[in-house]
Design goal:
five-stranded antiparallel sheet; alpha+beta; Alpha-D-Glucose-1,6-Bisphosphate, Chain A, domain 3; four-stranded mixed sheet; 3 domains
Length: 257
């Protein structure tokens, strides 16, 4: 970043073997970074996970933008310059669909997992892709999530815009996402839970490529088994927090019934 002409303030850069906080770059773990951005009057803050494949952004106001908006900003930067197909997973924000449509492009979705996204990107020749957890994939560099690729794209975008990151973010379609976890240690059978949901909501528009995703007007809710933990994940997205939270609670109650 210094090579790009940036003045960089590093936090917790010493490899002590101990994390100063939970290393997942979620808003609740980024309090120190948010304060540092404000104290140093920085243009932005950047939070990477330990293997540098996820990137979270902090605005100049010290406010986390949320991981979903990392890929959204990268997509908004690239598509006006290079039209093409976009690949994301089924749990990624609808903001990507809005940005693609605005630029005359299309979005294709895969199961959750970098390997699924990258494989489909290669198959269809996508120009950009990734996942809503802050993972940006730019195939011109390589077919893998890369936080530093995301950093370079965001810095160039800010330089071109010549305005604050908060305004770039505010210009994008705004959605709210909510998440819940349901432990499987209670003896809950994930396959049966998903079948129950698919049956109950069979008259709605469903996508069953990765769990069960119920598609509604400018909103959705999805239940899927985690690839890495013994849990069911419930995710919802809407234009208001109240609706997103309502959908999460609704599906959680169906699973628990």
């Amino acid at each position: 970043m210094e090579h790009f002409g940036c003045d960089v303030v590093l936090l917790n850069e010493a490899p002590t073997g101990c994390f100063a906080h939970n290393p997942e770059p979620l808003p609740e773990n980024l309090g120190e970074l948010c304060e540092a951005v404000k104290n140093h009057r920085a243009h932005l803050g950047l939070a990477l996970d330990p293997d540098a494949d996820r990137l979270s952004l902090i605005s100049e106001k010290g406010i986390p933008l949320g991981e979903e908006y990392t890929l959204a900003l990268a997509t908004a930067f690239l598509l006006p310059k290079r039209k093409g197909k976009v690949v994301v997973n089924l749990s990624t924000s609808m903001v990507i669909d809005d940005l693609a449509a605005k630029n005359g492009c299309t979005v294709e979705r895969t199961k959750v997992g970098e390997i699924h996204v990258a494989k489909h990107m290669r198959e269809i020749g996508a120009v950009i892709g990734g996942e809503g957890n802050g993972g940006v994939i730019l195939p011109d560099v390589h077919l893998g999530r890369d936080a530093m690729v995301g950093v370079a794209m965001i810095l160039q975008q800010l330089a071109d815009f010549a305005g604050p990151l908060s305004e770039l973010h505010a210009a994008l379609p705004q959605y709210v996402m909510r998440r819940r976890k349901i432990e499987l240690s209670t003896g809950l059978d994930p396959k049966q839970a998903l079948e129950k949901i698919a049956q109950k909501y069979r008259h709605e528009t469903l996508d069953t490529h990765d769990g069960v995703k119920i598609l509604r007007d400018q909103s959705w809710v999805q239940v899927r088994a985690s690839n890495t933990e013994p849990i069911l994940r419930i995710m919802s997205e809407a234009q208001s927090a109240a609706v997103a939270e309502k959908y999460c609670a609704e599906l959680a109650s169906v699973v628990a019934a």
